Amino acid sequence: MVSALSGFVLIGAIVLAGWALRRWGGLPENAEAVLARVVWLVLTPCLLFTGVAASDLTALFSEPLLVSVGAALICFGLHALIVRGVRPGLPGLSGSSGLPGSPGSSGSAFRRVGSGELVLGALGAGYVNANYIGIPVATYVLGDATLVIPIIVLQLLIITPIALTLLELATTGHASARAAVSVPLRNPLVVATLLGGIVALTGLRLPSILLNPLTTIGQAAVPMVLIAFGMSLSGRRVLAPGPERAGTVTAVLLKTAAMPLIAFLLAAAWRLTPPQTYAVTVLAGLPTAQNIYLYAQRFRTGQILVRDTIFLTTVSCVPVLLSVTLLFHLW
Prior knowledge:
By secondary structure, the protein is an all-alpha fold. The chain has a single domain (about 1-330), classed as Na+/H+ antiporter like fold, CATH 1.20.1530. Helices cover about 75% and strands about 0% of the residues. It contains 14 helices and no strands. The protein has helices spanning about 1-25, 30-55, 65-85, 105-125, 135-140, 150-170, 175-185, 190-200, 210-220, 220-230, 245-270, 275-285, 290-300, 305-330. Helix 1 (about 1-25) crosses helix 10 (about 220-230) and helix 2 runs antiparallel to helix 10 (about 220-230). The longest helix has 28 residues, at about 305-330. The chain is globular and about 55 Å long. Its main location: membrane. It is a multi-pass membrane protein. It comes from Actinoplanes awajinensis subsp. mycoplanecinus. Keywords: Cell membrane, Membrane, Transmembrane, Transmembrane helix, Transport. One of its GO terms (biological process) is transmembrane transport.
């Protein structure tokens, strides 16, 4: 319990440093965007490549990962069912985006935009931030960063290509096989994970002159992304009135409350060991991944919904994970 609390304190201190830096550091307006870009293009790919290359990919077929996948799929489906059932006729969920000049003026495009937001809302309810928050939590709370690697690999190499293909279909009305392959391969995290997987599967031993720089650069990813997140908390306004609010609230509740509970119940049904049950429950309590906002920007749909979901689930994850940790230690 003490080590877990120490991990949360460490994460909180780094996030607080980022918030203070943004508020009082006199940084230029684009400082956060530049830092996030460096993390996205350089630091995190190095971390993922070295982590996946040294991992045992047989963990992709492990029972804990199946539990994590089951919890995510249930939350994906629940969000789609709830949003379609509660708000079937509102723009932004099953209608137009509400943006002037958007394709929502015609019937078919009207439905396509709604479908894109439905895909993004479902992802917001179950696609965890395994990279930027998951690695620090696995490192400092669970004591083993490799516990989150199977989730990263699964999300980047399987869920992401499927999601991007669905978004392509939803926003354009068609999705080619070429787009289904090329869009994920333009994501540096996907490429780094794929290359690391090739190294792990082939047993290739990289020379230290190549591996050491990659490892050193990757070690900067965790603190830098926490600082960038802290910077993003300054001056944010969320849940403004609009058609996205219902989808946002649904995604936040599913992600922060339902998904950890579902993961725990599935782990109990699967008879996982207590440490495995604790790990999958904690990892299910991770916030929504920031990658999804990049997808919303790329396809120009659901940006407000995704932005607010990421913010609220990230802020909520600390009390959620603290509660999970406390309950497990009392149990």
